[in-house]
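Model: You mentioned two targets. I'll fold them one after the other.
Researcher: Yes, keep them separate.
Model: Target one:
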Amino acid sequence: MSELEIEYSTTGPSKGLDTISLLSSDDRLQGRPLLCSDCGLCDSALSPLMSKSCVFVRNQTQEIEQRLHGRNRRPDDELRFGIFRAQYAARMRRPNPKAQWSGIVTSLGARLLEQGKVDAVITTGAAPGTRFKAEPILARTPAEVLATAGNKPCLSPNLNLIDAVRDQGIKRLAFVGTSCQVHQLRAVEAELGLEKLYVIGIPCSDNVTYPDLEYFLTQISRSPKTVVHHEFMQDFSLWLRHEGGQVERVNYVDFPMDKLHGIFPSACLSCFDYPNTLSDLSVGYMGAELGWQWLLVRTQTGEELLETLRPDLEFTQLTESGDRSRGMPRYMERLTLPPGAKRPPFLIRKLVAHLQRKKGTKGLEFARAIIEMKLLRNLNYVRSKFARFESRVVPYHVYETLKPYADHYEQLFDRPLGTVTEEQ
């Protein structure tokens, strides 16, 4: 066992397995909202606007959608995916070997700089000497953007670069970020004095602090120090790519949840925007087949972004199969179990993993299933840990999206699924 494994196997997650993970209790973040993802806005000169812009003080999805699109979501896939004009499965014709996928996000940021469409790109790099410790980057050259290739699934205060943008007189900006960062950015957009803003959204769920990511890898991987990339994939397993190129796969059902349930920040468990719906262009993977990326074009600016990179992309058909409604009741029942419940026996886990891959949801139906599960899990978390916040942090579309499961929810949890008022 390595020194890293010894350290984290004894200490566990940084907040403790049975402790509510509030970043606002950390010294640097004291005075922030109780729910905080350290988006970086409070580190900037715009911090006085926090109470009017923070998604964890008051979710403004409905108002921002009206400003961006002139409407709110239709009662179809937009309830889950957010408002979009078109969606695609695509990848780079010449993939970047250092990228998490094929390199669409970094290639797009670099192309915007090459063509002079922006003066700078805010994105996320890795802190020197680490692979995954997230560090906000204000890139001024294509090379600086390309150097940030690869996912860093850790909290990153990207909005703390707003002051640098204003101080350097940057008027055309591209922003690559997670959904909480994008919500705050949209809420203060009018204060930035920009001539043009491109927002590239990364679908995001359950980011962690860097120490907790290190702990997670020690619990999941046979060789945590050699992990180069890792991603939760559409085949119901976590893929970990190691130095040398070998890939380790861990079935979701094999995760030691009794050792992991304390690693996720309360803010991430109180977020309802996995698909990053307030961006111009969302670039993820959930709705595409293995090996492809899922692109949702949301605005006219998003169409411009896609066209900027289209010559370098190859496309395939979006597909869907399976029936998420069959698995959702069982997922809801698992939510009634105590946090960190131990795994089923090995042979049962092996059978479950086989059935998930053979008969489970795929393509767009997989995306619908995962998004609905996250909405339900997080709604339950808010209700159990921060019930008085529900009317302020749970956006309007959550209840309508989950309405098909309302009867089963009420039977399991002995309360209605529907909305609450602030007075309640």
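Model: Target two:
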Amino acid sequence: MFFTSGIRPGGFNGGEFISNTSSHGTFRSFCLETNENITLSTNVTYSYEIVTTGAVNGGNGGGNPDPVSSASAWIFVQWITGAIANNQTNAVDVQRAIWSIENESAGTLSPAANALVATATGLYPNTADNAITSGNFPNIRVLNPFRMINGVREDYQSQIILIPLPTASGMALAGLALVGGIRRRK
């Protein structure tokens, strides 16, 4: 896996990232923690795990794993679907809003970031919930990159990602394959 930049203003450590993985495709993402970093280069490769439990080592907000709040997931989905225009100013606002909800060091929030936080926490006031297991956002996941250095796992910036859910036709085909497989065994 490697990361390339997405919509990220120069000098800002957050914003949208493009996560290119070897076996799961490409994801658009935002970071969940402010105290972990990642090198944006095709020369540095990471192993990764995609999980439902949360960010590894939980950042400043704590927890290991540290679940993604439904309020943060809502903001992220607004970005991915284009309900929030994908530009550099909004990328900073989205990042700071997610960090604020996740109890990270978000810095000073702009009026737009404050409005995002207010709307999201109005819709999902329990910011300690898990967006995935609560059922609010079952297709949200956390991409946890890591490297093994001298036999020791070193964790890097955990990312919120959206995975595609199976389509109805895909589920139907999977069901037919299962039935066909059971019939062949008899």
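Researcher: Noted. Anything on target two?
Model: Strands lie at 2-5, 17-21, 25-31, 47-51, 140-149, 152-155, 159-162.
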